[in-house]
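Researcher: Next sequence.
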Amino acid sequence: MQCPNCGGDTTVSETRSVGKNLMRRRRVCSSCKLRFTTREEIAAPNLRVEKRRGGVEPYDRAKLRRAVTRVCDWRPVEATTVDELIDHVEAQLTKAQARTVRWSRLVELVVDALRGVDGVAARRMQADYLDDTGALRLDDGAEARPGATPPQLGLFEDEE
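Model: Next structure:
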């Protein structure tokens, strides 16, 4: 890294872990002897997710967090536990050096991690995303025939 004062090379004199994904480094310039601090954050994995219907989109941690939080509603699962669970899933994907991950694999990893945290939440995740055989559910009920509308009851009785 270059010194912000003179542009010379710097050396790291001290490194500390500030949080789970944050590092604080004290640096010293070899030219002007300026001491300064940098904070570095570990970048999220550069993943792409292959969706159920074949489309591919960038991995979105917030989207996964919403799904996990939803299945943990009304359960004794802390928000920090959800974040740790997602960190664990991301670490497994990073360790596997995957560039693209199938949505079904992501669901399997989350369900496995949820089993250790809360069995009911794991079963909810399975019920939402997996069928009876454990395969990824392809029919999510969101797809309807073009032009078809679900039957609705009227507000008022028809008068004739």
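Model: The longest strand covers residues 10-17. The two ends are 83 Å apart (CA to CA).
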